[in-house]
């Protein structure tokens, strides 16, 4: 092991290509030790066969395999990050630490603690923007306050975007000889406290983006990119995805801008994690019936499109975006169950769970968010079938018994549910 080294900390950027902080680490003048920490604050609440942990683990294994071809290794650690860093700087002569920024409330607090620890030991910390094109304070209104409505945010985002400036490649391959020469055994998944999940992450594809806006709303076609888990954990560079979208399909680019919109909302208004963005909705009296919630979770509401979505989620970790809107709206408005219940369930099940987008979209569905569907917009789950699954292909796949006597009756009549929802919301807002 070389005397003085730099450490690169993998987090939401599990790739060796076009990685900003890694690029700078490899150009720091020190040999680079790459590490990953399974943060016990995050993983201790997860089930033993969590599909996302399996995905992360296999992604790290692939990185380690690539590093071993050049005589290096990835050091995988598990524990409380501050304690791990305290020990790590005793094991190695660390001069500099590099990592890409994370903008979630817990991550911000954790990273400040790590930076303070490293500073106390005379170690430089260098952090970089990598998972977004624009950070939380880079797209602002003329009065330097954050946008809270998507369309003007998007317009300003596009106005500031320069395809040559913002999607340049941060090469890491040219400097791969700058990793430390070390052979570290890669841990078994069981030693981290998990078992391999049977749920698999689908390969992503950007090949059909030209047709994206024409086919994206039809769940039976399954023509979305399946990119989101890869983007969530940084197996792909947002810069390269945005560049491709910018040159291919404006609607897909808009979806990527929604991602950054919700990230800056979470950063600037961290209260949204547990509170309504619009305080006036605090007065909504949720029914929060646990039996209804259990039926919704299990895909047993008697509404085939809602049930198909929930069963797809439970069995695969995926749910088509159009169906996410329908199932979320149904929980909040038909059943009058607090959006936080649904958000937590999606957080447990979704392969692509990402706090800002999950929170933003749930508050959108409930009408409580910054740029939300109005409370009186209530999807009819039956007419949605005519619009998006008229041949019943998606429903037949996930709810094969929907035309049989064994299939449950609707949990509530749509007309009655709509009237009840409007009454509850109106009373809360008056």
TrEMBL record:
Superkingdom of the source species: Bacteria
Q: What does the record give as cofactor?
A: (6R)-5,10-methylene-5,6,7,8-tetrahydrofolate; FAD
Residues the record annotates as the site (Electron transfer via tryptophanyl radical) are: 286, 339, 362
Q: Which UniProt keywords apply?
A: Chromophore, FAD, Flavoprotein, Lyase
Q: Name one GO biological process term.
A: response to light stimulus
- Could you tell me which Gene3D superfamilies the record lists for this protein? 1.25.40.80, DNA Cyclobutane Dipyrimidine Photolyase, subunit A, domain 3, HUPs
Coiled coil segments of this chain = none
Photolyase/cryptochrome alpha/beta domain: residues covered: 4-133
What InterPro entries does the annotation carry? Crypto/Photolyase_FAD-like_sf, Crypto/Photolyase_N_sf, Cryptochr/Photolyase_FAD-bd, Cryptochrome/DNA_photolyase_1, DNA_photolyase_1_CS_C, DNA_photolyase_N, Rossmann-like_a/b/a_fold
Q: A single Gene Ontology molecular function, please? A: deoxyribodipyrimidine photo-lyase activity
Please indicate if the UniProt record lists Flavoprotein as a keyword: yes
Cofactor binding note: Binds 1 FAD per subunit.
**Binding positions (FAD):** 212, 224-228, 252, 255-262
Spell out the family assignment given in the record's similarity comment: Belongs to the DNA photolyase family.
Q: What is this protein called?
A: Deoxyribodipyrimidine photo-lyase
């Amino acid at each position: 092991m070389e005397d003085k080294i730099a450490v690169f900390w993998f987090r939401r950027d599990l790739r060796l290509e076009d990685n900003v902080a890694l690029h700078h680490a490899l150009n720091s003048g020190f040999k680079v030790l790459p590490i990953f920490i399974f943060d016990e604050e995050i993983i201790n609440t997860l089930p033993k066969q969590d599909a996302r942990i399996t995905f992360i683990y296999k992604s790290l294994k692939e990185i380690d395999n690539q590093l071993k071809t050049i005589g290096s290794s990835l050091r995988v650690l598990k524990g409380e990050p501050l304690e791990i860093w305290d020990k790590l700087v005793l094991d190695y002569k660390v001069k500099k630490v590099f990592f890409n920024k994370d903008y979630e409330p817990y991550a911000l607090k954790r990273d400040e603690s790590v930076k303070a620890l490293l500073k106390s030991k005379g170690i430089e910390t260098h952090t970089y923007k990598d998972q977004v094109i624009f950070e939380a304070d880079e797209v602002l209104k003329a009065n330097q306050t954050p946008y809270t409505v998507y369309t003007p945010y998007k317009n300003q985002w596009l106005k500031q975007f320069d395809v040559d400036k913002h999607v340049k490649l941060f090469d890491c391959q040219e400097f791969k000889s700058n990793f430390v020469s070390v052979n570290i055994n890669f841990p078994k998944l069981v030693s981290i406290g998990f078992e391999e999940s049977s749920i698999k992450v689908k390969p992503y594809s950007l090949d059909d983006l030209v047709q994206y806006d024409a086919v994206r709303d039809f769940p039976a076609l399954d023509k979305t990119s399946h990119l989101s888990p890869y983007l969530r954990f940084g197996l792909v560079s947002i810069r390269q995805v945005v560049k491709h979208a910018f040159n291919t399909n404006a609607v897909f680019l808009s979806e990527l801008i929604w991602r950054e919109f919700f990230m800056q909302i979470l950063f600037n208004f961290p209260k949204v994690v547990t509170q309504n963005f619009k305080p006036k909705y605090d007065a909504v009296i949720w029914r929060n019936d646990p039996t209804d919630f259990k039926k919704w979770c299990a895909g047993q509401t008697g509404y085939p499109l809602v049930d198909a979505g929930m069963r797809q989620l439970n069995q695969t970790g995926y749910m088509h975006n159009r169906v996410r809107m329908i199932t979320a709206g149904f929980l909040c408005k038909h059943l009058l169950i607090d959006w936080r219940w649904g958000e937590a369930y999606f957080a447990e099940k979704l392969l692509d769970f990402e706090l800002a987008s999950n929170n933003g979209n749930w508050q959108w569905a409930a009408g409580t968010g910054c740029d939300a569907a109005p409370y009186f917009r209530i999807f009819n789950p039956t007419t949605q079938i005519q619009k998006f699954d008229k041949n019943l292909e998606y429903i037949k796949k996930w709810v094969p018994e929907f035309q049989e006597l064994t299939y449950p009756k609707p949990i509530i009549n749509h007309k009655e549910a709509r009237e009840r929802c409007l009454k509850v919301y109106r009373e809360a807002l008056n």
